[in-house]
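Hi P.,

Sorry for the delay on this. The queue was packed all week, but I finally got your sequence through. Input first:
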Amino acid sequence: MSNSAISIRYARALLKLADENKQIDQFGSELAIMAGLLEREDYLRQLLDSPTFSQQKKTAILHDVVEALGLSIPMRSFFGLLLEKGRMSYIKQIDVHYRRFADEQSGIIRANIRAASKLTKERIEAIRKGLEQQTGKQVMLNVEKDTTLIGGLQAEMGGKLFDGSVKTQLKRMADTLAKG
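Then the structure:
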């Protein structure tokens, strides 16, 4: 089974459990916390993934970590299962898939906006409303400033990139002129 298929399977199972417990947001937050921790703490991630370190010691370490983080009992069990099955390295992918599935279930779509200059709150709200009208879903925006765009903006949503940046327009003009 591919890495993606494995992480999708765990993400779907966790979402089902979260839905049954009415804790979709809480499980998502706790999963993101653990994924972020393992991304930041390289030594901890390597230790939990190590085949040479005993399962008993890894379990004790994981227990201390989830207890210190104050994670819920179901999430402690979930991380224990991942450790037992040797799947701790999949947590980041599971987090990404879980968030996507939870958003789909809730009718939410996430969009990343990159703008050449800082956008006003009014402009951000207008972009959000426009995207909501086009998709028929609630849109959650993540807005970043990217001065390399020169002007305009790029919106990435649902795996598609909508590019209205001056940088891309200039590149298209250069390509057209080069072709003759």
